């Protein structure tokens, strides 16, 4: 079992003992998505795969929050934000903008990228280095701004 999944299960047990219903609901949701993916793919997820599940849930949560705000459903925004706080506990520490820019510049120099045609190579290399530590959409935008 992956360390991250074991940590999530341990946190679920702690939430049960503390009778923290909101945290318990969010953790059960995370474990449900992990279990669904394990069943669908007939594998046991490793830490990177569990992290990708958590990242996807964070992205979906942010999308839901923006849609609920547009619809004026503040009650649902509050619920989704509470769930997002719990989910974010399992994300690695996020890199600063300076660190992200430094990583981008290093990879550009390493492969000699000079135009948008190198975008795929850059994103592939950066995803392996920065995966989970920053939003790859932001990375993509930064690369585009460097080549425009």
Describe the structure in your own words.
This protein is mainly alpha-helical and 148 residues long. The protein folds into two domains: 86 residues, Hypothetical Protein Yqey, Chain: A, domain1, CATH 1.10.1510; 51 residues, Arc Repressor Mutant, subunit A (Orthogonal Bundle), CATH 1.10.10. The protein is 78% helix and 0% strand. It is globular and about 55 Å long.
- CATH level-four homologous superfamily name of the largest domain: Uncharacterised protein YqeY/AIM41, N-terminal domain
Q: Supply the CATH class of the largest domain.
A: Mainly Alpha
Gross geometry: globular
The average pLDDT score comes to 92
Q: Which fold name fills CATH's third level, the topology of the largest domain?
A: Hypothetical Protein Yqey, Chain: A, domain1
Largest sheet: none
Count of beta strands: 0
Mind telling me which CATH architecture of the largest domain this is?
Answer: Orthogonal Bundle
Give the fraction of residues assigned to helices. Answer: over 70%
Beta percentage is under 5%
* Number of alpha- plus pi-helical segments: 7
- Uncertain runs are none
* Distance between the amino and carboxyl termini: 45 Å
How many domains make up the coordinates?
Answer: 2
- Helix and strand composition category: mainly alpha
Radius of gyration: 18 Å
- Strand-and-helix sequence, N→C? HHHHHHH
Reconstruct the topology from this structure:
Blueprint: H1 3-18, H2 21-41, H3 47-70, H4 74-88, H5 97-111, H6 119-130, H7 136-147
Helix pairs in contact: 1-2, 2-4, 3-4, 5-6, 6-7
């Amino acid at each position: 079992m992956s360390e991250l999944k074991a940590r999530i299960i341990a946190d679920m047990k702690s939430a049960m003992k503390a009778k923290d219903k909101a945290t318990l609901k969010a953790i059960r949701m995370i474990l449900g998505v992990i279990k669904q993916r394990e069943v669908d793919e007939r594998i046991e997820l490793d830490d990177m795969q569990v992290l990708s599940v958590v990242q996807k849930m964070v992205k979906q949560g942010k999308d839901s929050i923006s849609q609920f705000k547009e619809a004026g459903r503040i009650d649902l925004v509050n619920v989704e934000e509470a769930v997002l706080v719990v989910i974010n506990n399992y994300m690695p520490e996020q890199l600063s903008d300076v660190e992200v820019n430094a990583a981008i510049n290093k990879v550009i120099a390493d492969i000699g990228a000079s135009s948008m045609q190198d975008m795929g190579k850059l994103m592939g290399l950066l995803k392996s280095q920065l995966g989970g530590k920053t939003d790859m959409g932001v990375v993509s935008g930064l690369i585009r701004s460097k080549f425009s």
